[in-house]
Amino acid sequence: MEHVPGATIRCVGGIAFDAQGRLLLIRRANDPGSGQWSLPGGRVEPGETDEKAVVRELREETGLDVIPGTLIGKVTRGPFEIFDYACAVVGGVLTAGDDATEARWSDAADLSALEAAGELVDLLFVTLRDWDALPRA
């Protein structure tokens, strides 16, 4: 799909935790943020609801099946308007796929180390902190 200059591109992301309170992250294969760790997610396709897009994107990027819940927050990065939803993992096996080169569960120490090394997508740590969505482990 071609982008119209000045128009925003609606995207979704999933904020999911495992039973130990670790946050689900993927390493982005493509821009924006290629090579950086991020929340899984992507563009909402024409005619698709945010809920369906979250389910599809998380399955494609992580191999996990999720049930999206509450909208946690929204960020804008360039033309991308990203709506991030709390997600409950209900099945699947964690495997990087589609637009992700890696997928993993990150605890608080791991997330801090990624932030310190500059390996997180811009402002992800600050945004998650502001939303009270940092790993609980």
Automatic annotation (TrEMBL):
Against Pfam families, the record matches this protein to: NUDIX
> Organism classification, top ranks?
Bacteria, Bacillati, Actinomycetota, Actinomycetes, Pseudonocardiales
Which UniProt keyword terms apply here?
Answer: Hydrolase
> SUPFAM superfamilies per the record?
Nudix
Task: Tell me what this protein is called.
Answer: NUDIX domain-containing protein
What cofactor does this chain's UniProt record say it requires? Mg(2+)
Question: So what family is this one in?
Answer: Belongs to the Nudix hydrolase family.
List the InterPro entries: Nudix_hydrolase, NUDIX_hydrolase-like_dom_sf, NUDIX_hydrolase_CS, NUDIX_hydrolase_dom
Please list the residue ranges annotated as the Nudix hydrolase domain.
Answer: 7-128
**Gene3D superfamilies reported in the protein's UniProt record:** Nucleoside Triphosphate Pyrophosphohydrolase
